[in-house]
Design brief:
Layout: E1 3-4, E2 11-18, H1 21-30, H2 36-39, H3 54-62, H4 65-71, H5 75-79, E3 81-90, E4 99-111, E5 115-126, E6 132-143, E7 147-148, E8 152-153, E9 172-178, H6 182-190, H7 200-205, H8 215-230, E10 238-245, E11 253-261, E12 268-274, E13 280-289
Parallel strand pairs: 1-7
Antiparallel strand pairs: 2-4, 3-6, 3-10, 4-5, 4-8, 5-6, 9-11, 10-13, 11-12, 12-13
Helix pairs in contact: 1-6
Amino acid sequence: MGLRASAVGQNLGESVVDVTPRMTMAYAAGLGEDAECYMDDLRADGVVAPPPMCVILEWPVINGRGYREASGTSAEEAWGSIHVLQDSRFHRLVRPGDRLRTTGRVIQVRQTSAGALMVSRLETTDAKTGAPVITSWFGAIFLRMDVEGTGVALEEPPPLRTERGVPTREAERLVIPVGRTLPHIYTECADIWNPIHTERKIALATKLPDIILHGTATWALTALALIRARGGGDPARLTRFAGRFHGMVIPGTDITIEHVSDPEHPGTAQFVVKNAAGELAITHGLAEFGKGAS
């Protein structure tokens, strides 16, 4: 069975979420983030959601019935797909009390050497006003699967950097420990579950060396670290966070974030993430900050 090229242009349905303090604080805590803006609900302005929490809003759409029906894949085939691209634009912060609607549309299907690639554009808006909140491009490869029909692209995701890595000599480094139980905590706090992240029996049966950390968790840890390092700890300054998921992170090890300033685009950082073996886990990384970010 192949991935349908006719999926391009199809809508993936919608999800409406009422954002609560429990949701935003659990997500932050699950990633070990304890900044007041995320955790102190007695602040004058209340708490805000960490920007990478957008994946919680998007998960029901890209894991839902509409996604499988559009692609023509079974639930098992959808579980076997690999998340390879996450590029999110943050129009404003998410706050408890928001009622948000997320919709999706398939914008590209094409064949790659690894399998069939499907890229979707996800829009999260204020359910009351329709104002934009988050726009994301989500890419997944269905491994060893062929495209049925001719590959089609309605649009291309925004361009990432041409280079996979960053200049090693110029890079600043941040080392973040990944606890052995982090995938279990993240699974529950983000409500994003796939047994390859929590059950060794399943992970080994799928030819993985061990359970692996969710790509979105590695992505989120990196975003939060760069908000601290380059955004003065202010999540409102992060306007775009993007990268390609490339390699595995084994829980119980460290990840290393290497980041440099983009000489041609003030406020933009280029980054990569490496696992404990020195292999690239996230490539082509871009973090864009509002005016005044280093």
